[in-house]
Amino acid sequence: MDKIIVLDFGSQTTQLIARRIRDFGVYSDVLPGDILFDEVPKENLKGVIFSGSPYSVYEEGAPMFDSKWLEAGLPILGICYGFQNLTRFFGGRVESLEKKEYGRSRIVYREENILFDGIPENFTSWMSHGDSIQTPADGFRVIADSEHHIAAAFHPEKRIWGIQFHPEVTHCEYGTEILKNFVLKICSAAAEWSMESYLGTVRKQIAEKVGTRPVLLLISGGVDSTVVGGLLLKSLPPEQVHLMYIDTGMMRKNESDEVAAILKTLGAVNLYLIHAEDRFLGALKGVIEPEKKRKIIGDMFVKVQEEEIGKLNIGDYFLAQGTLYTDLIESGKGVGKKAQVIKSHHNVRTPLIEAKRAAGLIIEPLDKLYKDEVRSLGKLVGIADSILFRHPFPGPGLGVRIMGEVTKERCDVLREADAVFISELKRRSLYDRIWQAFCVLLSDRSVGVAGDARKYGSVVALRAIVSKDGMTADVFPFEAADLLEISALITNSVKEVGRVVYDITSKPPATIEWE
Q1: Is 154 within 8 Å of 160 (Cβ atoms)?
Q2: Which of 101, 129, 168, 373 is catalytic?
Q3: CA triple 497-502-506, angle to 5 deg
Q4: Would you call 172 a catalytic residue per the annotation?
Q5: Is the Cβ–Cβ distance between 119 and 91 less than 8 Å?
Q6: Does some domain include residue 279?
Q7: What is the pLDDT of residues 313-339, one digit of tens each?
Q8: Rounded to two decimals, what is the model's pTM?
Q9: How confident is the model at residue 392, as a pLDDT?
Q10: Segments forming the whole domain that contains residue 346
Q11: Residues 95 and 218 in one domain
């Protein structure tokens, strides 16, 4: 089938570009930005996109593309750093901005161009850059301006387009249409890819890689691992699949009982429920640094798994995980070697996981997908909507929603507060309007009044966001009455909590989780 290649120079939103293209029904592949042109299969290749990057084009070690891409006659679209890199290569001038440009910026295009076909000549884009193009390279015509400087340029002879803004993020007005114009009109790619075709491909890949060896999935009961469980059971004989649920002591209220019921509906014949609260909380005693907590939890998951699997005598096995692409890129494991670490995910960067991945013993069938794509895949696998549309829950559980030391007592406080919050969202018909909601227990205590007495209590932060893919997110706009009533219910129901605050920070600049 026709495909578009996205060359990744380390941007946090590179995979979003490929994701948007797949939405058009066109297959897209992400490759390292510095990959040699001769190493890439060209069959059915219709166009190339150069991604953004955290680097400056003048920075030492900044990633560079193979110049042969420019000689192939393929349509090229440079986005942000990709545009700047092309400009510099052809002799234009790129300069550092005194003040970096983040967020919304008005765009007006000077002349009609197929890239802007069907788009109003005045629209709002999304910027995220520290350098700016001061002088276009020879042969390029400026076809659009932002309210600050050059927004887009076009080289008619070489069929190269460049844009300074990011059409892949949901905040960019008409961004999807701009990418669609490039893929479908400029590149003339045929829309032949679908989630059904992906399911067929990934089932075949799993069966070929695993053969007759057993597969063990550490299943949390969340959407991602549950979809992987269903996918494994659909791709392999059920007796070959082993599902292990580890109760870390950092789960939500009644989580373990709910998970056990969910797993039984998948048709699993090998299901193991492991209670390991003492082991996890013991390992976390006295630890307050977020990255250290994540790594301890990740290592403990594998250690407990190895201890427990040793008792089962299933032989040489593959380890399956519900890793998403967002997990990989936030952990600096995007395609290529230029991605930066935002935060480590317990199933990505821990030493034991790294060792298993290096040995080729990891099965991660969701590692090219985003959350909404996982839900679409889950529907095809046959998993109920009540499971698929649960709010995301991090692998380390409450361990990354407790600021400071993680103890049983603090887990219990957070569990109760979170249960009140989520139950109220459901009762008020707000749960399905929110992409993810949860409580965070802060490390500080705050003074308050209980009756006529002075009292110090814990502080709980509420977090509720709306998003499509988890890469960008806006705060859910609660009615003031809802927040006031939910806050009162939490402080009245959970005696240890003396103050409730609401986190109103979008992503970026924040991440969705606090740690």
Answers
A1: yes
A2: 168
A3: 145
A4: no
A5: no
A6: yes
A7: 888 889 898 888 656 554 444 444 444
A8: 0.67
A9: 84
A10: 195-388
A11: no
**Residue 508 belongs to a domain:** no
Residue 136 pLDDT > 60, yes or no?
yes
Instruction: Based on the fold, state whether residues 128 and 219 are members of the same structural domain.
Output: no
Q: Which residues, listed in sequence order, are joined to residue 457 by a DSSP beta bridge?
A: 446
Within 9-112, strands assigned E span: 27-32, 45-50, 76-79, 93-109
Q: What is the pLDDT of residue 346?
A: 46
Catalytic residue (choose from 155, 166, 242, 346): 166
Phi-psi region at 39: left, alpha or beta (left = phi > 0; alpha = psi -120 to 50): alpha
pLDDT one-digit tens code per residue, 228-285: 999 999 999 999 999 999 999 999 998 888 877 777 788 889 999 999 999 999 999 9
What secondary structure does DSSP assign to 442-475, as a single string? EEEEEEEEETTEEEEEEEEEEEEEE-SSSSSBEE
Residue 166 among the catalytic residues:
yes
How far, in Å, CA of 391 to CA of 37, rounded?
Answer: 41
Is the distance from CB of 30 to CB of 52 less than 8 angstroms? no
Domain end call among 140, 166, 186? 186
* C-alpha to C-alpha distance for 183 and 186, rounded to whole angstroms: 6
pLDDT digits (tens, 9 = 90+) for 184-233: 999 999 999 899 988 998 999 999 999 999 999 988 778 898 999 999 99
Asked if residue 216 belongs to a domain, the reply is yes
Same domain, yes or no: 343 and 458: no
Question: What are 284's strand-pairing partners?
Answer: none
